[in-house]
Protein: Beta-phosphoglucomutase
Organism: Proteiniclasticum aestuarii
Amino acid sequence: MGIKAVVFDLDGVLVNTDRFHYLAWKRILWELGKEFSVEDNEQIKGVARSKSLEILLQMKNITMSEVEKMRVLRKKNNLYLEYITEIDEEYLLEGVEEFLELLKFNGLRTAIASTSDNTSLVLEMTGLKKYFDVIIDGHKVKAPKPNPEVYLVCAMELQIEPDECAVFEDSRAGVLSAKRAGMKVVAVSGRIIGEADKCIESLKNLDMNILDFQ
Ligand code: BG6
Ligand code: MG
């Protein structure tokens, strides 16, 4: 069965914003008197904000009232927004625009599936919005990755069957979410993550063969 649509995760696949999420969480944990390493960050990559906090509280043995959680979540997002105030097309990852142009040239439909509430803002700031037929973000779906909802809603809005969609993802939670939705998955991480069908280092120099899953 041929691929008719390509669905992208945003942070860490198209835009170099992952490090800003990392830095914001690092600062939050520092204020709570805890270390936060790159390895710790792997546990929350691709995971929605409130779920990330739950994982971190458990990981670092911290208890917190619901009110305090709300305050921390707001602060994390404010820090992230401060970090991204300057982002523009320079923050696109390698090969992104060329690959999106190639997909459009070949008549494929394209979509974003991100659980970030800041998706629209980041797409606007980096000039990417024009490339996508469908954009599903944290305001449209509530179930965080690895739940398949974000990818299933994407397929529904694209009006394309999930097994005719190829997904580009960089996180374990994201790969699992897309596989559970019944899609083909390319891990953009330099190594196979979970049940991903293929893996690549970046979107640089890709051709249409990347969408061949036979
Ligand atoms: C994902 C990021 O895309 O979005 C996560 O990989 C982030 O790090 C999640 O926690 C939620 O994003 P936001 O912008 O709503 O905090
Ligand atoms: Mg990601």
Summary: The two ends are 8 Å apart (CA to CA).
